[in-house]
Write a structure and sequence with these properties.
With 335 residues, the protein is α/β, with parallel strands linked by helices. The longest helix has 21 residues, at 235-255. It has an eight-stranded parallel beta barrel, surrounded by eight helices. Strands 5-6 form a two-stranded antiparallel sheet. It has helices at residues 18-35, 58-65, 85-98, 112-117, 125-140, 176-185, 197-213, 235-255, 286-300, 316-329; strands at 4-9, 39-42, 72-79, 103-108, 145-147, 152-154, 169-172, 188-191, 223-231, 281-284, 304-308. 44% of the residues are buried. It has one domain: Luciferase-like domain (TIM Barrel, Alpha-Beta Barrel). Helix 1 runs parallel beside helix 10. The chain is built from ten helices and eleven strands.
């Protein structure tokens, strides 16, 4: 499978109203299209306090973008245990029709604290994930009934998604069960922003082993990653200018206990996150970033890269520079 590249954008910024931010990003996406990027992705969060990052309604964001870009639209990721499968089946089907069948749903578990806030037992996260994935596929296939431990649904979903069988489901997760779930119930495995390269290697291997066990064609396997990306003409310039923005996002993940080292241990406060390099993010010249992409492709089997280029309240011109340098000097190396 050829390498593909998308933009994973942060759709919340304390300094910029959302409608103005969407206008900025429409310009950015137009530039990305011209260079051959494949998609744009919005993540889900349910924040309690101000801060840049993901929004609570990524499907609404993507619907707003759908008429202004020809890129594929993806969620990176929806917090699936917070959704009733019937509600998501309807909303995603409508969005798939709005965007002419360009929707991909990346889905993940999220934090236990979020489930508790919604009155859901965290120990049910895995079983709710499994049931919701099964229910989505059945409803989108036209079935009129679904019965499980958590959900019982009568009647079908109309209008159906434009894509036969519904949008592809890319399943995130760092556990062995997550890789198995991606192979058996999903259409790809998706690595989140804080996943260490060593974890991506491990999960990619597990995912592909499960596909082998199911007799599925490895050549069609999707292994996708979110990677923070900050590109400048030189490595020195990129690391100097990008440190504040990259570190802000990494520090957020460390504070919520979602950042791990090579051995799978939580990264402590004494460690310099920025020194972890391309194990967590891409920051450098186009040539350095291209070398990192080859490493992920050759050593971890990654074939879909979603570049998180607008993190930490970054000015638009810096994000646009990353798109331009990537589009002109990195993407052509992988066509």
């Amino acid at each position: 499978m050829p390498l593909r590249f998308g933009l994973a954008l942060d759709f919340w910024n304390e300094a910029r109203p959302l409608d103005k931010l969407l206008d900025d990003y429409t310009y950015l996406l137009g530039r990305a299209e011209s260079y051959g990027f494949d998609s744009v992705w919005a993540g889900e969060n349910r924040p309690r306090e101000p801060g840049p990052g993901h929004v609570s309604s990524p499907l609404l964001i993507l619907a707003a973008l759908s008429r202004n870009t020809r890129l594929r639209l993806g969620t990176g990721v929806l917090l699936l245990p917070l959704w009733h499968p019937l509600a998501l089946a309807y909303d995603a089907a409508v969005l798939d029709n709005l965007c002419s069948g360009r929707l991909v749903l990346g889905v993940g578990v999220g934090l236990p604290q979020l489930m508790e806030r919604y009155g859901l037992p965290p120990d049910e996260a895995g079983s709710r994930m499994d049931e919701t994935l099964c229910a989505l596929k059945k409803l989108w296939a036209g079935e009129q009934r679904f019965a499980g431990k958590h959900f019982s649904i009568e009647g079908g979903v109309y209008p159906a998604p434009l894509q036969p069988g519904g949008p592809p489901l890319w399943v995130a997760g760092k556990l062995a069960r997550s890789a198995e779930r991606a192979a058996t119930l999903g259409d790809g495995w998706y690595a989140a922003t804080p996943y260490h390269f060593a974890l991506i290697q491990k999960q990619s291997r597990r995912y592909r082993e499960h596909l082998d066990g199911l007799g599925r064609d490895q050549a069609r396997a999707t292994v996708a990653v979110n990677r923070i990306a900050f590109v400048a003409e030189t490595d020195e310039e990129a690391r100097k200018e990008g440190k504040a923005y990259v570190s802000r996002v990494l520090e957020f993940y460390r504070q919520i206990g979602q950042l791990w080292d090579t051995q799978g241990n939580l990264v402590g406060a004494q460690e310099d996150l920025y020194e972890m390099g391309d194990a967590l993010y891409f920051a450098g010249s186009p040539e350095t970033c291209a070398a990192s992409i080859r490493k992920y492709r050759d050593e971890a089997g990654v074939n879909y890269f979603n570049l998180r280029i607008s993190m930490g309240g970054m000015p638009l011109e810096l994000a646009a520079r990353t798109v331009t340098l990537f589009g002109e000097r990195v993407l052509p190396q992988f066509r």
